[in-house]
Amino acid sequence: MKHGIRLLIGGMIMLTILGLFSGCGKKAAEIGKDFPVGEITGLRLENRSDSQEEAFAYTVMTGEDGALSLEISRYDEIDGDRIWETVVPDPTLWDAIRASLAGKKLQPEGTKAPDKGMALFLQKNREESWRLVRMEETAFAELREQMWDASDGAPYLPSGFDYSELVAFSIKEVASMAFPGDSLIALDRKDGKWIAAYQVAGQQEPQRKEVDDAFAGTVLTILKEYDLGSWDGFDRTAKNVLDGSRFECSLVLGSGEKASASGSNSFPRGYHDVWKDLRTLYLTVFPQN
Q1: Domain that holds residue 58
Q2: Does any domain span residue 175?
Q3: Which of 21, 215, 217, 251 lies 20 to 30 Å from 5, alpha-carbon distance?
Q4: Is residue 190 part of a domain?
Q5: Are 146 and 182 contained in the same domain?
């Protein structure tokens, strides 16, 4: 009996060793050969860091219709917040990316990315799992430069939201220890009348007034200019930030269609400009002492 157990264990050990040696002979998949560049539909470049200022992520995706989108998460030095934005880059971005990736090696499936530092992931055919790519620092820097250039001045990814049908809108900054007091800007269509609401930090309740079509039209123009409908589904929280500002935004159309967004120390592109433009407009109706 003992002899049989020894043989069984010995056999298992030999199979394990043979498996390891056979694995050593496998070549890493090469982009352009084993992983066709034409089938790449997603790319994500990250810098993983505990520092808000240093961490970033770029994600390029090709939709089923072939449309290209680029989502960026980065630190905004001017506003001191983490900004998330989705833009429509020039279609030639994929050509530049594929040229940069040709010949690079893929890590074996299931390889985990490092907890800190740069990491690049690829996906093909929109359904397969993301694969980690082996790259040197210079290649990472080149790729990030391509992403940066592609996002600079690129238009928003349009939402198709019909602002002329808007019946309710609100954007609110929620109180925190660092920023006590809620702030609110809102506009509602009730019984054929436009009702505006405005609240600044320190006020217990928002002020409300009926406004004319011209005022409401200007609000709709601002919402359309920054395409707040494209914020729909935004729900981000900046890590390693113990306190700061949080926002909530909601839009409702007469058809019942809705768009909503929220974030804590993370904001969609144009957020601060929207607040600035709306606040300037609302102060003409709600003057503050």
Answers
A1: 37-151
A2: yes
A3: 21
A4: yes
A5: no
Q: In terms of domains, do 134 and 208 share one?
A: no
Q: Name the E strands within the chain.
A: 40-48, 56-62, 68-76, 81-87, 105-106, 117-124, 131-134, 166-174, 183-190, 193-199, 207-211, 235-237, 246-253, 258-264, 266-268
- Per the confidence metrics, is the pTM higher than 0.70? no
pLDDT tens string, the chain, 289 residues long: the values are 444 444 434 444 443 433 433 344 456 688 878 788 888 888 899 988 888 788 888 888 888 878 888 888 887 766 666 777 788 888 888 888 888 888 888 888 778 888 888 899 988 887 777 888 888 888 888 888 888 888 877 776 788 899 999 999 999 988 665 555 679 999 999 999 999 999 987 788 999 999 999 999 999 999 999 999 989 988 887 665 555 678 999 999 999 999 999 988 778 878 889 999 999 999 999 998 7
